[in-house]
Write a structure and sequence with these properties.
Radius of gyration: 32 Å
Order of helices and strands: HH
Distance between the termini: 107 Å
Number of helices: 2
Low-confidence stretches: none
Largest sheet: none
Helix content: over 70%
Shape: rod-shaped
Structural class: mainly alpha
Length: about 70
Protein backbone atom coordinates (compact mmCIF):
# COMPACT_ATOMS: atom_id res chain seq x y z
CA UNK A 1 0.00 0.00 0.00
CA UNK A 2 1.28 3.46 -0.97
CA UNK A 3 0.49 6.26 1.43
CA UNK A 4 1.20 9.96 1.73
CA UNK A 5 3.95 11.12 4.01
CA UNK A 6 2.62 13.00 7.06
CA UNK A 7 4.21 16.33 6.09
CA UNK A 8 2.71 16.14 2.58
CA UNK A 9 -0.83 15.40 3.73
CA UNK A 10 -1.84 19.09 3.81
CA UNK A 11 0.64 20.46 1.28
CA UNK A 12 -0.70 21.68 -2.04
CA UNK A 13 1.49 20.43 -4.92
CA UNK A 14 1.26 23.74 -6.78
CA UNK A 15 2.53 25.84 -3.87
CA UNK A 16 6.13 25.50 -5.02
CA UNK A 17 5.24 26.95 -8.42
CA UNK A 18 3.01 29.68 -6.98
CA UNK A 19 5.63 30.84 -4.48
CA UNK A 20 8.29 31.17 -7.17
CA UNK A 21 6.13 33.28 -9.49
CA UNK A 22 6.86 36.98 -9.64
CA UNK A 23 4.07 39.36 -8.61
CA UNK A 24 2.51 41.10 -11.61
CA UNK A 25 2.26 44.87 -11.53
CA UNK A 26 -0.75 46.84 -12.65
CA UNK A 27 -0.49 49.45 -15.39
CA UNK A 28 -0.81 52.16 -12.77
CA UNK A 29 2.07 50.75 -10.72
CA UNK A 30 4.25 50.57 -13.81
CA UNK A 31 3.35 54.17 -14.75
CA UNK A 32 4.15 55.31 -11.19
CA UNK A 33 7.52 53.53 -11.28
CA UNK A 34 8.38 55.17 -14.62
CA UNK A 35 7.35 58.60 -13.31
CA UNK A 36 9.49 58.15 -10.18
CA UNK A 37 12.47 57.09 -12.30
CA UNK A 38 12.09 60.14 -14.57
CA UNK A 39 11.78 62.48 -11.59
CA UNK A 40 14.88 60.95 -10.01
CA UNK A 41 16.79 61.32 -13.29
CA UNK A 42 15.76 64.97 -13.65
CA UNK A 43 16.76 65.69 -10.05
CA UNK A 44 20.16 64.07 -10.61
CA UNK A 45 20.71 66.12 -13.77
CA UNK A 46 19.77 69.34 -11.94
CA UNK A 47 22.14 68.49 -9.10
CA UNK A 48 24.95 67.78 -11.56
CA UNK A 49 24.29 71.05 -13.39
CA UNK A 50 24.27 72.96 -10.11
CA UNK A 51 27.57 71.39 -9.08
CA UNK A 52 29.01 72.19 -12.51
CA UNK A 53 27.96 75.85 -12.18
CA UNK A 54 29.55 76.02 -8.72
CA UNK A 55 32.83 74.67 -10.11
CA UNK A 56 32.74 77.18 -12.97
CA UNK A 57 32.12 80.02 -10.51
CA UNK A 58 35.02 78.82 -8.36
CA UNK A 59 37.34 78.70 -11.38
CA UNK A 60 36.23 82.18 -12.44
CA UNK A 61 36.98 83.47 -8.95
CA UNK A 62 40.43 81.90 -9.01
CA UNK A 63 41.16 83.42 -12.43
CA UNK A 64 40.05 86.83 -11.19
CA UNK A 65 42.28 86.60 -8.11
CA UNK A 66 45.24 85.51 -10.25
CA UNK A 67 44.62 88.44 -12.60
CA UNK A 68 44.54 90.88 -9.67
CA UNK A 69 47.79 89.45 -8.30
CA UNK A 70 49.44 89.78 -11.71
CA UNK A 71 48.32 93.43 -11.94
CA UNK A 72 49.76 94.17 -8.52
CA UNK A 73 53.11 92.61 -9.39
Amino acid sequence: MVGTHKSNATTHPGNIVLKSQQKKCTKQEIADDIAKAKAKSIAAKKAAASKHQAVIANIAGLKASVKLEEEVI
